[in-house]
């Protein structure tokens, strides 16, 4: 029984750390500071709260409805793993090259979002935080570990991730001053390396499912 609990806790910890690496809230700090530079401190705090609530809701809905979406389009989990892992790997390579912002949103989206009063949901929550990589990862985990107990555990992990991300955003100005742009870039590249490893693992698992006789 204790071994079963250990396996489950390891799963939830791996899921949580995967979200941290893929979303990389510290790496998004420069974007958050830039998008909220025209806001007061109180408005910046509200934006951080609303953005992370939106991220939690998006990931929760993805976790619960992801398999239904795959079934609707007759997409196998193995094929989605290859596609999602490839996407995660692509984003990770861009993070390693310091081009995170260019991957998650383009210049046209920047101009559009700058014209809006609130940036909490778009582009912060979607697509900067709950982007394709995070959504792909959540769907893969939820499809593979679909037992109610596992879904509950992953829901708790998503909630804890939202709290951690909010705390980082809450201290955005302080952390940015302490780390500086160089420190942020270093952390982004470390997260990119971890994310690259996750992407390769996901692709390998998908290929094994698609071509069991070859691997």
Summarize the structure.
By secondary structure, this protein is mainly α. It is built from 10 helices and no strands.
Question: What is the fold's blueprint, element by element?
Answer:
Elements lengths: L1 H22 L5 H7 L5 H32 L4 H20 L3 H5 L2 H8 L5 H10 L2 H13 L3 H23 L1 H39 L5
Q: What is the residue-mean pLDDT, rounded to a whole number?
A: 82
Task: Quote the distance from N terminus to C terminus.
Answer: 33 Å
Return the string of H and E elements. HHHHHHHHHH
Count of beta strands: 0
Please describe the biggest sheet, giving its number of strands, its sense, and whether it closes into a barrel. Answer: none
Helix/strand class: mainly alpha
Molecular shape? globular
Strand content: under 5%
Rg (CA only): 18 Å
Q: State the helicity in percent bands.
A: over 70%
The overall number of domains is 1
Our count of helices gives 10
Low-pLDDT stretches are: 110-117
